[in-house]
Amino acid sequence: MAAPPHSLPHAALEAWSLSGGSFSGASFMQPPQVKLAQTLTMGAGLTCIAAIHAGERVLTEPAAAACAMPMCDAARCMGCLRSLAPPPHELPLPKLAQCWPRLHACAVQCKGGCGALFCSPPCERLAAKHHGIICPGPGKKEDRLLAFCRALPLRLAPVAGAPLLALRLAAHALALRRQGVEDVPFLSAAPIAGLCEHHLPASTLLRTHHAELLRRETLAQLRATPDECEWVSTQAYAALLGRVLANQAQLRPRSAFDAYGAALRASTHDRDARSKLVDALLDCGPEGKDGDRREALEALEEPTRVDGTGVFRLHSKFNHSCTPNCEAQSHPFEDASIDVICIRDVHPGEALTISYCDPKLSRMHRRRVLKENHGFDCACTRCLAEDDNL
Ligand SMILES: [Zn+2]
Ligand SMILES: [Zn+2]
Ligand SMILES: [Zn+2]
């Protein structure tokens, strides 16, 4: 399908991302109808310079860094996170089994011997910007950073991927420095400078209590020299972690099972025939209730589902509103990119906004989430108009 006229071609953004595109000066490539501007009430943010209609794509952006969440064990591409799960032993419906993506069969293994998988040579090249120096090499080595993230308390689960994203960004910055491409302060390094700076409140536990510990593990994993350790100072690492925490977006690439399920759904329009297919798939007979079936389907899908997180340079520049005019969606091409879609018509000069929290929450709940996770008191028109007591 052709991209809508307003969207920036994916390849152009990718080239920009690969070159470590920066938001300052001429190297800032942006979708043609969007500009970075100071707003009166919300600081710097994205503003549209031409009308965008509801349903139109504002941009598609590859991640500056992306990784699977710490608890995720599904086989996936280290670069784009797409599922590389082999089909279950006996997929019912042999004809439909052909719809199971065969990516696992052509996946390439990391040449460093760590066992990481890449869905394709381009993904291997893309990931090389960080994996090249993170790769622990052959043999099972204890991944202490991952172990730390896995052990975080449940309430920190949504942000548990942040240290892993910070590791990738630091690795990319360090790789550029080691190659002599850049000699700038750590936070000004290309992969990091493009991320929006947010000031998180001191109450963000992960940031205040663990930053130094995480920094040391990160530097150990990167086999940093004393000079490099000085470059990634405690303060600089904490600021990087803060940026990641404030900007990370959930990624949910489609699982191999999704593709199979879609083929299943598309295989017949007859509801009865379809439900018989589902019965056959689950082998639970027609007496199973709808809820039981959904649970069984989810259990079947679970091992192939990739739960991911990523940070995006342009996406990080969107300001918040509790009545946003844009929405970020996982990319339909199943890789570590996101689309930002306009959800209502916007006029030239209007600020483009997304919601940093679930807009369905009550005013009080939204404001608490925004204060705790993003450190601001929301003063959007909806927050000003609504009443906590309603
Ligand atoms: Zn890939
Ligand atoms: Zn490797
Ligand atoms: Zn608000």
UniProtKB/TrEMBL annotation:
Recite the UniProt keywords alphabetically. Methyltransferase, S-adenosyl-L-methionine, Transferase
Which terms does the record give in the GO molecular function aspect? histone H4K20 methyltransferase activity
Q: Which residues form the SET domain?
A: 32-357
Which PROSITE patterns does the protein's record reference? SET
The protein in question is named SET and MYND domain-containing protein 5
User: Known InterPro entries for this protein?
Assistant: SET_dom, SET_dom_sf
So which domain of life are we looking at?
Answer: Eukaryota
Q: Which Pfam families match?
A: SET (PF00856)
A single BP term in Gene Ontology: methylation
Check the record and name the PANTHER family matching this protein: HISTONE-LYSINE N-TRIMETHYLTRANSFERASE SMYD5, SET AND MYND DOMAIN-CONTAINING PROTEIN 5
Q: What does the record give as the organism's lineage?
A: Eukaryota, Viridiplantae, Chlorophyta, Pseudoscourfieldiophyceae, Pseudoscourfieldiales
Stretches assigned to coiled coil: none
